[in-house]
Design brief:
Shape: elongated
Radius of gyration: 25 Å
Distance between the termini: 82 Å
Number of strands: 7
Strand content: 25-35%
Number of helices: 4
Structural class: alpha+beta
Largest sheet: 5 strands, mixed
Order of helices and strands: HEHEEHHEEEE
Length: 179
């Protein structure tokens, strides 16, 4: 009588089961870690690129002396450093945070055709400091138009590192309501 050794087959079946279980756990972990963005909001490369370009726009605000005009990204940092929003001024006497809001609003109004007959119904911009302990500290927030009956909402973001002021990042998020 011939004895058949099934030990090798049992080891292969066990190995296949382990690989299958690890694969299933990996897929579940990956789907949870990626998460689902807001269902009605789509990330847009165009909006992110617009924000990136806006960050390098030179403003009418010089903090120390006249030829040193700050760009939007520098004004956001200065506004964050001036937590009260009322202390730091441009050389022309205007408050830094107020100048930032005026400059951003002007750029966005010219860049995005907002209105009832426009391509976009409205926009909303949020600028906040996101620290390592997940505390979001609002720096600036404003909107134009409305977000009623949007055919879609597209958005984008831009991050500004601020390690010299503490550990964290200033996040700029722009959402646009499309007609």
């Amino acid at each position: 009588m011939i004895k058949i050794n099934n030990r090798g087959q049992h080891e292969i079946v066990g190995f296949v089961l382990i690989v299958l279980i690890v694969s299933i756990v990996g897929v579940i972990f990956l789907s949870i870690s990626l998460g689902n963005p807001e269902p009605d909001k789509q990330n847009s490369i165009e909006i992110s690129n617009l924000l990136g370009a806006i960050m390098h726009h030179t403003t009418k605000c010089a903090i120390n002396f006249i030829p040193e005009y700050k760009n939007v990204q520098d004004l956001i940092r200065e506004c964050y450093k001036d937590k009260s929003g009322n202390l730091k001024e441009c050389v022309n006497g205007e408050k830094v945070c107020n100048n930032l809001k005026i400059e951003l609003k002007d750029i966005l109004d010219k860049s995005l055709d907002v209105g009832i007959d426009g391509i976009n119904k409205g926009y909303n911009i949020n600028i906040y400091f996101n620290s390592d302990d997940n505390n979001n500290e609002l720096i600036l927030n404003f909107y134009e138009g409305n977000f009623n009956n949007c055919s879609s909402i597209v958005g984008g973001g831009h991050s500004i590192p601020v390690s010299s002021f503490g550990f964290g990042i200033i996040e700029t998020e722009l959402k646009v309501c499309k007609n």
